Amino acid sequence: MASALETMLSDAARLRGEGNAVAAVAAYERLLARFPDLPDSWYNLALLQRQLGIYEPALSSYQQALNRAVREPEEVHLNRAVIYADCLLLPDDAERELRSALVLNPNYVPALINLGNLCEDRGDRDSATALYHKALASDPECWDALARLANLARAPAPDDPLIARLRDALARPDVAPADKANLGFALGRVLDAASAYDEAFAAYADANRMSRASASPGRGGYDRARQERLVDALIAAFPAPRPAGSAARAPIFICGMFRSGSTLAEQVLAAHPRVTPGGELPLLPAIAAELGPFSTAAAQASHERLVGLANRYIASLASLFPGADLVTDKRPDNFLYVGLIKALFPAAKIVHTVRDPLDNCLSVYFLHLDHSMPYALDLMDTAHFYTQHRRLMIHWKSLYGADIHEFDYDAFVAAPRPTLERLLSFCGLDWNENCLSFHRHQGIVKTASLWQVREPLYKSSSGRWRRYERHVAELLAYKSELSSA
């Protein structure tokens, strides 16, 4: 006959295996209330709590696992660091956990990689470089460290040994497609920086092919018809503005295509003393997911529910950024949620970032995006997504035009001051000279543009597509659709 401990352990493990996280948490809590000296069960409870977004209890459960001498405690410190860095936006606490992991195991590669990434977020290139070198010394086949090291390289020569090292890794038959994709995007970036544009385009094309090959079976490719139906549904769901939502002061929402200048817009605003950059917050997508099919649900939700959701958003924002005057919520995909934003916060201001469509599409194709954005893996799929994005923004502007401001990347690099004056005025902010020196702003940046926005304003990215003109004939033929969308 099974003991009470065995029965409770089995029940908790079964619920966890079934994916019933809520019931599994309750089962582990009952188990640990009776048998507290089970470090592995504390660890499993923490994983489930983190999965449910219950971050403070997850940190406490991880600490209980540490207090009870869990095996491989460096992994527990790593998991705590991820919560602090990505969920609670507390980089100093994340660094403390990572350094604790490295005290226990100085060659623990995941902690070295994560600490290097944190150094990048802070703009500390030298420390990040040293950490990636240390990771490679510990594990010469840590392809992530090699790719990250390549992405930090400054203006390499075409014969840079790093290029040969990347090519050697890509030629190995035992390297997985996902790793080859990562290495390939890094090689493309290094070759582009070395002005070897034909070779760079070939590297990016191979990287996208490898990324497609590494996608899980359930992911599928980009479905153009499905994207068109989504945009149709959003337009139909919001034929006119609806009086609803909260009168609470909303953040400044920033949206646009990936690689259109949204990080730049946020950093420019973040240099203003009244603005706190929120980065890519998960709050809005979480509300959309709770509402259900957000193409219609936000339009049909009651005034009371919308006010409740808006107030919860504001409370979450206040807990993340206590005392902040004005916060930015910068997610490129916020453009899908403009109807929801205006239903929650009728007075919300939305900054929509734009740039030359050819540059934008090419830059997306050159970026290693998650498979949840499959349009990025094919240049013409990217162009199609761009036209659907523009079609939806035209609709939003027809409804909320006075509250949507286009921040044009190319106009900004050509004439910074007048472009900035218009942006600040739209956001209700007084002129501040610091915003022109945004690259000196000290703070965390967690996007692919983290190094670009730490450089003084430069014009070399405007018209970048011309360097690749011989490779983008089909995109050029589609230019009229891109420009008219």
Give the class-level CATH name of the domain at 229-484.
Alpha Beta
**CATH topology descriptor of the domain at 229-484:** Rossmann fold
Number of alpha- plus pi-helical segments: 24
Name given to the CATH architecture of the domain at 229-484:
3-Layer(aba) Sandwich
Using only C-alpha atoms, the radius of gyration works out to 24 Å
Strand content of the residues, in percent? under 5%
Largest sheet, spatial ordering of strands: 2-3-1-4-5
Element pattern in H and E: HHHHHHHHHHHHHEHEHHHEHEHHEHHHH
The computed structural class is mainly alpha
Oligomeric state of this protein: single chain
- Euclidean distance between termini CA atoms: 70 Å
The biggest beta sheet is recorded as: 5 strands, parallel
Average pLDDT rating: 90
Please tell me what the overall shape is.
globular
- The amount of helix comes to 55-70%
CATH superfamily of the domain at 229-484: P-loop containing nucleotide triphosphate hydrolases
Strands, total number: 5
Low-confidence stretches: none
Structural description of this entry:
This protein is mainly alpha-helical and 485 residues long. It has a domain at 229-484: Rossmann fold (3-Layer(aba) Sandwich), CATH 3.40.50. It has 24 helices and five strands. It has a five-stranded parallel beta sheet, with helices on both faces. Helix 2 runs antiparallel to helix 3 (39-51) and helix 11 runs antiparallel to helix 12. The model has no long low-confidence stretch (mean pLDDT 90).
